[in-house]
Design a protein that fits this description.
67% helix, mainly alpha, globular, 317 residues
Length: 317
């Protein structure tokens, strides 16, 4: 091999490309600026949207379920029966107190109906919905699928409780509206004579009914919280419902025992009829505040128990 030949030949190493060859063959293009990343939707906004969609879906299921609608219809019928009965026996000399007040004014039927139904029938209706919230999903095998979605256990628990609260206020509104319409049809309308003997206008009476609806709805929200807490511990809906009802009845029995008067103010049913404070002039705001604080304490305690157990629960169904 000649010296000239070695001077013109490029030395090659197996498996490597010579630098001179690479520089001469590679096309060098100017780098294009990369497109800015698409703005990400705020996490809080997405979570809020998912929360409200889940709540709307839950409310739709609740208010389209025949069982829940049947309970609302049954509760709406009771004030009608009470009003007709009072109308038939309005002339009885033995009728007195609030019943006599109903016969004298249509608005009083609303207070009488709420006083009678809030002790047991309305709490039962609310406990059916709240007690079925978690236990029904677990018993039907759908709870783990709900938790598989990016909803979160705390968010799911909040949705279930708010759904029960809405139903609780729906129960209260249905009873109050049914009693109000029945009273206006069967009894005279006009100024209202309160339990304290003071006479107020019909407009004032309607405002007091609105206060009563808010108070009773909050009381039933406390019942819903208790039922939801029990529902978090079982996969049998009827167990959560029965447990709530038995607890309310047991508290009613304890209230009737004279030796247990000291604990009576702390029992949930004791405050159910505390809305009679609006039938006095001026309104007994102290009694209303005590009742609302009691309901709030039950709500916080029950939801805390439900959250502590549900967020750490091993869901297999």
């Amino acid at each position: 091999m000649s010296t000239a030949d070695t001077g013109t030949r490029t030395r090659r190493t197996p498996g490597l490309v010579p630098v001179t060859e690479t520089l001469s063959t590679v096309e060098r293009r100017p780098e294009e600026p990369s497109a800015p990343p698409a703005p990400l939707a705020p996490q809080a906004g997405r979570r809020a949207g998912a929360f409200w969609r889940l709540l709307v879906s839950e409310l739709s299921l609740t208010f389209h379920r025949p069982r829940n609608l049947a309970m609302l219809a049954a509760l709406a019928t009771v004030p009608v029966i009470m009003g007709v009965s009072l109308r038939l026996f309005a002339g009885d000399d033995q009728v007195g107190g609030m019943i006599a007040a109903v016969a004298g004014n249509s608005l009083m039927l609303t207070f009488l109906a709420l006083s009678a139904l809030v002790l047991l029938m309305m709490p039962i209706a609310v406990s059916v919905v709240a007690g079925d919230a978690l236990a029904g999903e677990a018993g039907g095998g759908t709870l783990r699928y709900l938790l598989a979605a990016p909803a979160g256990r705390t968010r799911l628990l909040a949705v279930k409780y708010l759904n029960a609260v809405v139903y609780a206020y729906a129960v209260t509104a249905v009873v109050a509206l049914s009693a109000l319409v029945t009273g206006l049809v069967l009894f005279p309308a006009g100024d209202v004579v309160l339990l304290s003997g003071t006479t107020v206008t019909m407009t004032d009476g309607l405002l007091r009914i609105a206060l009563t609806v808010g108070y009773v709805g909050f009381a039933l929200s406390a019942v819903a919280a208790v039922a939801l807490a029990i529902s978090a511990f079982t996969e049998v809906p009827i167990g959560a419902i029965a447990g709530t009802v038995v607890l309310i009845i047991a508290c009613q029995v304890l209230r009737a025992i004279p030796a247990l008067e000291a604990i009576a103010p702390y029992l949930l049913p004791t405050r159910f009829t505390g809305f009679d404070a609006v039938l006095r002039s001026p309104i007994d705001t102290g009694a209303l505040t005590e009742g609302l604080l009691t309901f709030g304490a039950y709500i916080v305690m029950s939801l805390s128990i439900a959250w502590a157990h549900f967020t750490g629960k091993d869901v297999t169904s």
